[in-house]
UniProtKB/TrEMBL annotation:
<feature type="transmembrane region" description="Helical">
    <location>
        <begin position="192"/>
        <end position="216"/>
    </location>
</feature>
<protein>
    <submittedName>
        <fullName>Copper ABC transporter permease</fullName>
    </submittedName>
</protein>
<feature type="transmembrane region" description="Helical">
    <location>
        <begin position="228"/>
        <end position="252"/>
    </location>
</feature>
<keyword id="KW-0472">Membrane</keyword>
<feature type="transmembrane region" description="Helical">
    <location>
        <begin position="135"/>
        <end position="153"/>
    </location>
</feature>
<feature type="transmembrane region" description="Helical">
    <location>
        <begin position="12"/>
        <end position="37"/>
    </location>
</feature>
<feature type="transmembrane region" description="Helical">
    <location>
        <begin position="291"/>
        <end position="312"/>
    </location>
</feature>
<feature type="transmembrane region" description="Helical">
    <location>
        <begin position="353"/>
        <end position="373"/>
    </location>
</feature>
<feature type="transmembrane region" description="Helical">
    <location>
        <begin position="324"/>
        <end position="347"/>
    </location>
</feature>
<feature type="transmembrane region" description="Helical">
    <location>
        <begin position="380"/>
        <end position="398"/>
    </location>
</feature>
<feature type="transmembrane region" description="Helical">
    <location>
        <begin position="410"/>
        <end position="432"/>
    </location>
</feature>
<feature type="transmembrane region" description="Helical">
    <location>
        <begin position="109"/>
        <end position="129"/>
    </location>
</feature>
<feature type="transmembrane region" description="Helical">
    <location>
        <begin position="839"/>
        <end position="859"/>
    </location>
</feature>
<keyword id="KW-0812">Transmembrane</keyword>
<feature type="transmembrane region" description="Helical">
    <location>
        <begin position="439"/>
        <end position="456"/>
    </location>
</feature>
<keyword id="KW-1133">Transmembrane helix</keyword>
<dbReference type="InterPro" id="IPR018580">
    <property type="entry name" value="Uncharacterised_YfhO"/>
</dbReference>
Length: 878
């Protein structure tokens, strides 16, 4: 075996190297041209890469260094199923490379992993091409380069978790070929399993496509391939079963916490138009990856030429053309028909980055181009020339008749470059067919042209990302890191029991999972929707299905309830009970003397606590009073008075007020004054009448020399204007920016009675249960004066199990959000243990399916004993 591998590498290393490193270095050079390289001031992080992927990879680094459990993290919002997060964001084979980077240098890790994944896609397609097409060896490289650098991959290169799919797709299809032609299912089994484990989302799309591909290829030779239906079914099911070790926990988690299915409200997909397929096959066409985009399907003009040639040459059976053409028809129809489009996305409309399955169109173009090139002969000059001229005509017609509104983003240079390269490809092929150059010269010329074309297109894609999203400055991520980490580490040294912390000047919404502290904020497709929904009812903003939840702009009651013991802030948070304890760089650490532990005892009537609809202050009051056995009225409303305004017109309505800017792109400033009583924490209440119209609108509140900026539709309602121990007339200013108008319910000032608040907090603290949380467990002791309930702020998940004095007890769900258990009178040892729902069945399936596949392969490969008939002596006829 070793000799075979050595011989294979010795024979093929130039082609393997070229297939990997040409796409790799194309990306390196273009990144370098826009100022991205290891240690550069501009990072590779754009769009979700900054807030999500950098922090999630940093958290995986924490796991690899033993700082966090692989099953559960206390550092994503209040607590989260981490195995499920891995299956969606971190399942790739290259993710463990973060082990060799410090979290402060994660931008460099993402840079390297992105390059490796792009290069691996090229190498994977070379493996497919070498085992599929009969063509010159460099011809396989000629096809692998455009595949690795197709527009979908480069235009979405910041979505690092998708890039693994482009490596597995050619291997899955090659696995189907080997199963159908050689009865060898191993490659298909391994490729399917690794694909689903790396990212079940993209795996679903490739799984559907590969199933359709199997059917189409089977129908090309039904008599032979119909015998492969059962082997394909067995291999696919066993691979899918083996992948359940990660997929099953994720699916069960998403079923409980994921997005709802999207409704079909229209037949035709939005923003698509007649010439989309043609326009998006031009060189360097980038519209957007936000809303209103059309599919990214460009994979190079040479593959397009030979893909068209596949359908016009007589060397390919008509039946094959119709069958493989049907795959194109399905994909194109999906681009335009909403129900089909939703199906590819698992019946959930994507949040930007539309048509996420369009890379399958690009793959199909390259795949059929290889078969077309196989059939290309010297006497095909007229046919190939005609095909190329037809493409030139179609591109020109599309440009000449395009709707300026639909295709205004396409520059004339895109058409010029497209026509120039079509002529260059045609000229090279004509020279070969006229026997002016040999085949190996033609292949060399085509590789040079393909690489140049891919370079130009990739440059347009990456610069499109730069314009569309901007690649974030490294300093935004790395500069605050040492100071924040120093303060976070200090809190860890000072605490033996569980606590939570939040940064009022965060780097991103997912800082906690990076720095290793438990907070409230989270932006993730993997989340605990029910706990976020309840926290939304209590004033933390988490609208819809809880994709986002934010800490800022809530009250002291909620700081205490969820156990916020510390705030990190660049300025004084102006909060009652918060005292500065340390400083690092521009950040200071403030400790909250009124925080509550992870668990606290309550009477069984706690389950009956009222939850007034659309009234988070009343919800906070009801819950706090129930926990403290008090009947306090914590909140009082005051009417502030406007004393100054700049660049704003105020439009008063019966139930709301609108602030309209007078000069465009200039902030709308309003200054209020209000009389605040003694011992009061004061907040300005700003509740938008329409969240959707305020996506880009911010509010910066300035009071007592400090300022705090918030995104209005993302953060909470209560903007802190400070604590006052004496009666004070407070003047504060809010600067609105981002939209021409902002509309709110009539703004009020909310006063929190800190004396009443402190009494209730003390009462709850006296019934607290100090738990220590580590890994996937939370343990501690509690003493109950009577039969009561231990209520925790641990988000409820079916993976939790509870033990009292070593005996398992049933978990009772509080408001569908938090874990609680009954406890009897006396002192008890409490233990909460987490294991993701579905993990153990997934492990069993993993072992059984891999074992079953090994047995299946051995049984099917076992040589059959031939039945030998005994020789009979012929009688001589006399």
């Amino acid at each position: 075996m070793k000799k075979k591998i050595h011989a294979f590498i010795k024979e093929n290393w130039p082609y393997m190297t070229a297939s990997f490193f040409i796409p790799f270095f194309v990306m390196v050079i273009i990144y370098l041209s826009i100022g991205i390289y290891p240690g550069s001031s501009r990072s590779v992080m754009a769009s979700d890469s900054f807030s999500q992927f950098s922090n999630f990879h940093a958290s995986f680094n924490n796991v690899l260094h033993g700082k966090q459990s692989i099953f559960y993290t206390w550092n994503a919002s209040l607590g989260l199923n981490y195995l499920s997060l891995i299956s969606y964001y971190l399942g790739g084979l290259f993710t463990p490379l973060v082990l060799f980077f410090k979290n402060q240098n994660i931008p460099d890790a993402l840079y390297l992993i992105t390059l490796l994944k792009i290069g691996s896609a090229g190498l994977a397609f070379w493996v497919f091409a070498r085992n599929t097409y009969k063509m010159p060896k460099w011809g396989h490289v000629m096809l692998s380069i455009p595949y690795a650098l197709m527009s979908f991959a480069t235009a979405h290169s910041e979505i690092i978790m998708w890039l693994d799919a482009f490596t597995y797709l050619p291997l899955v299809i090659l696995g189907i070929h080997r199963l159908m032609d050689q009865r060898k299912p191993t490659l298909l089994f391994v490729s399917y399993m690794l694909l689903f484990i790396s990212n079940f989302y993209m795996g679903f799309m490739i799984g559907v496509f590969s199933f359709l591909y199997f059917i189409v290829r089977m129908l090309t030779n039904w008599k032979v391939y119909k015998k492969r239906i059962i082997p394909y079914g067995i291999t696919s099911l066993l691979a899918g079963g083996a992948s359940m070790i990660l997929v099953l926990p994720a699916v069960l988690d998403l079923r409980a916490n994921g997005e709802t299915l999207s409704e079909v409200t229209q037949f035709k997909t939005e923003a698509t138009a007649f010439w989309d397929i043609i326009m998006k096959n031009m060189i360097g066409v980038y519209d957007t990856t936000k809303y209103g985009s059309i599919p990214f399907i460009y994979v190079g003009l040479l593959p397009l030429i030979f893909c068209v040639f596949y359908f016009v040459t007589r060397e390919i059976p008509r039946k094959n053309k119709l069958l493989f053409g049907s795959l194109f028809i399905i994909l194109i129809a999906s681009f335009y028909i909403t129900p089909l489009n939703l199906f590819w996305h698992g019946m959930h409309a994507p949040n930007m980055f539309l048509f996420r399955y369009s890379f399958l169109f690009s793959f199909l173009v390259v795949l059929l181009a290889g078969y077309g090139f196989e059939k290309f002969k010297t006497d095909d000059l007229g046919l190939l020339t005609g095909s190329t001229i037809m493409l030139i005509a179609v591109f020109a017609l599309a440009e000449g008749t395009k709707d300026a509104k639909s295709y205004g983003y396409i520059p004339i240079s895109a058409l010029i470059l497209t026509l120039v390269f079509l002529f260059l490809y045609l000229a090279g092929i004509v020279f070969y067919q006229l026997k002016k150059i040999p085949m190996h010269y033609l292949i060399t010329l085509l590789i040079l042209l393909v690489s140049a074309e891919a370079f130009i297109n990739t440059n347009a894609m990456l610069k499109g990302i730069l314009t569309d999203w901007n690649y974030a400055s490294r300093s935004l991520y790395s500069e605050p890191y040492p100071s924040i980490k120093k303060l976070v580490d200090k809190t860890k040294k000072e605490n033996d029991t569980f606590y939570r912390l939040e940064n009022l000047n965060p780097v991103s919404s997912n800082d906690s999972i990076n720095y290793g502290y438990s907070g409230v904020s989270l932006f993730s497709s993997i989340r605990n929707r029910h706990s976020s929904s309840y926290l939304n009812d209590l004033g933390f903003r988490s609208r819809g299905t809880g994709l986002n939840i934010r800490y800022p702009n809530n009250t002291l009651l909620m700081d205490s309830l969820v156990g916020i013991k510390y705030n990190i802030s660049e300025s004084d948070p102006l909060k009652f009970g918060f005292f500065q304890t340390d400083k690092a760089g521009k950040f200071s650490l403030y400790e909250n003397s009124n925080s509550l532990p992870l668990g606290f005892l309550a009477d069984k009537d706690i389950y009956k606590v009222k939850q007034p609809a659309n009234d988070n202050l009343s919800s906070q009051t009801e819950l706090f009073n129930a926990l403290s056995d008090q009947k306090q009225n914590y909140f009082t409303f005051y009417q502030p008075t406007i004393i100054d305004k700049k660049n704003v017109k105020i439009e008063q309505n019966a139930k709301s007020v609108t602030y309209r800017e007078l000069q465009n792109n200039v902030a709308k400033d309003i200054t209020w004054t209000v009389d605040v009583p003694a011992n009061t924490q004061a907040y300005l209440s700003l509740f938008p009448t329409d969240f959707g119209q305020l996506e880009s609108s911010t509010a910066t509140l300035s009071v007592n020399g400090t300022s705090q900026k918030s995104q209005i539709n993302i953060t909470g309602q209560y903007y802190n204007i400070g604590y006052y121990d004496k009666p004070t007339t407070v003047t504060f200013t809010v600067s609105f920016y981002g939209t021409t108008t902002v509309s709110f319910m009539e703004p009020k000032v909310v006063g929190l009675d800190t004396t009443a608040f402190e009494q209730s907090v003390q009462a709850i603290q006296d019934k607290g249960a100090d738990l220590t949380a580590k890994g996937r467990k939370a343990v501690g002791t509690v003493t109950a004066d009577k039969d009561q309930v231990l209520l925790t702020s641990i988000p409820y998940d079916k993976g939790w199990k509870a033990y009292v004095d070593g005996k398992k007890v049933p978990i009772e769900v509080f408001k569908k959000a938090f874990v609680s258990i009954p406890v009897t009178q006396g002192e008890h040892t409490i233990e909460f243990v987490y294991l993701p729902e579905g993990f153990l069945p997934g492990v069993i399936l993993f072992i059984v399916c891999i074992g079953g596949f090994v047995v299946y392969v051995r049984v099917t490969n076992k040589p059959k004993l031939a039945l030998v008939k005994p020789k009979t002596r012929k009688r001589r006829i006399r």
